[in-house]
Amino acid sequence: EAFAVYERLEADDPKAGSYAHDHLLAMEDRANVFRLRGEQYALLAAAQPDLAVEHQDSARRWKLEAVHVLELAVEKGQRSFNADEANVMYARRLALILAQLGRSYESLSRYTEAEAAYERSIELRDVLVATDPTNQHFNDAVVGWYRLGSLRELEAGDSDARGLRAALDAYTRAREFVQRQLDAGVQPDNTHLKSVEAQIDAVRRRISS
Q1: How buried is residue 13: exposed, middle or buried, by Cβ count under 10 Å (0-12/13-18/19+)?
Q2: Contacts of 5 (CB under 8 A, 6+ apart)
Q3: d(CA 45, CA 128)
């Protein structure tokens, strides 16, 4: 029902960008509810082996519901962004939704789709840093590159040296954005800094082993 209200508001006043943005937020919230339900069933599958198959099926179903909502949100967000590419609010919201979609694909082991979603999100985040270099946008870029590195590392396993080097490249890009914050006199998120540096060291060790 809330989505129908947003659609009516947007139809009545298409130039009021806040309605479209709020609609996207509502879609994100709904997807997060579905994602959390999926995670709860996944935990139940581990805790109740006798019902594991049923819980796993439920977990997958809710995760797919989250993907469906996020895919619709990406389409809507892309239309809004295409209509006003200078709108920082639309660009950041689309980047965040793409990142959420990537996480949802990743949870379903749909790694190729996850990587594509992460990369699209990163493209927007890199542009935002270039055009509106706020601390928030720098942090978004760090997180985006870190997640891509994490996915590539997961895909690579222990035997794919090329995949590990691709993961290292992504982590290094995340570190570069942290350095740009430091160079600009901005204090980066210490958690991000420590996590990125730890993963760079870990991947380097795995490549050399």
Answers
A1: exposed
A2: none
A3: 41
**Token reading at 167:** 């993961």
- In 3D space, the residue among 127, 141, 125 whose CA is nearest the CA of residue 180 turns out to be 141
| Segment-wise mean pLDDT, segments of 10 residues, the chain, 209 residues | 52 58 90 96 96 97 97 94 91 96 96 98 95 91 96 92 96 94 80 89 92
Contact criterion met (CB below 8 Å) for 182 and 188: yes
- DSSP string of the chain? -HHHHHHHHHHH-TT-HHHHHHHHHHHHHHHHHHHHHHHHHHHHHHH-GGGHHHHHHHHHHHHHHHHHHHHHHHHHHHHHHHH-TT-HHHHHHHHHHHHHHHHHHHHTT-HHHHHHHHHHHHHHHHHHHHHS--HHHHHHHHHHHHHHHHHHHHHHTTT-HHHHHHHHHHHHHHHHHHHHHHHTT----HHHHHHHHHHHHHHHHHHH-
Written as one letter, the residue type at 121 is S
Amino acid sitting at position 66: A
Q: Residue with structure tokens 């396993």? A: 157
- Judge contact between 51 and 44, C-beta under 8 A: yes
